[in-house]
Amino acid sequence: MIHQVPIKSLPQEWLWCETWCDDSSKKRAKTIDLCNNPMTKEPKLQAAVRIVPEWQDYDQEIKQLYSSVHYATDSVTEQQFHYLN
């Protein structure tokens, strides 16, 4: 199939990765691939915090949302349990 269908690479701005792209091109990046860098073996979440400054804010927001949904679900389940008994 690879001989019948031409394969094109995405422009660098559509798939920026620290392993093969320079820092100056990151400003124009439309997506950032948090790929594993074989040279550093840095964990992805640690790299995300370093590469994408707003990552910590997003991560904190998701954790708060998860906690509120989880708490609400536990409260409903607990109320249903008491109602049934």
UniProtKB/TrEMBL annotation:
GO biological process entries: ERAD pathway; protein N-linked glycosylation via asparagine
Can you tell which superkingdom this protein's organism belongs to? Eukaryota
Glucosyltransferase 24 catalytic domain mapped to chain residues: 1-65
Instruction: Spell out the Pfam families in the cross-references.
Output: Glyco_transf_24
Tell me a Gene Ontology molecular-function term this record carries.
UDP-glucose:glycoprotein glucosyltransferase activity
Q: Which GO terms describe its cellular component?
A: endoplasmic reticulum
User: Which PANTHER family would you find in this protein's record?
Assistant: UDP-GLUCOSE GLYCOPROTEIN:GLUCOSYLTRANSFERASE, UDP-GLUCOSE:GLYCOPROTEIN GLUCOSYLTRANSFERASE 1
Name of this protein: Glucosyltransferase 24 catalytic domain-containing protein
Q: Which organism is it from?
A: Gopherus agassizii (Agassiz's desert tortoise)
| Organism phylogeny | Eukaryota, Metazoa, Chordata, Craniata, Vertebrata
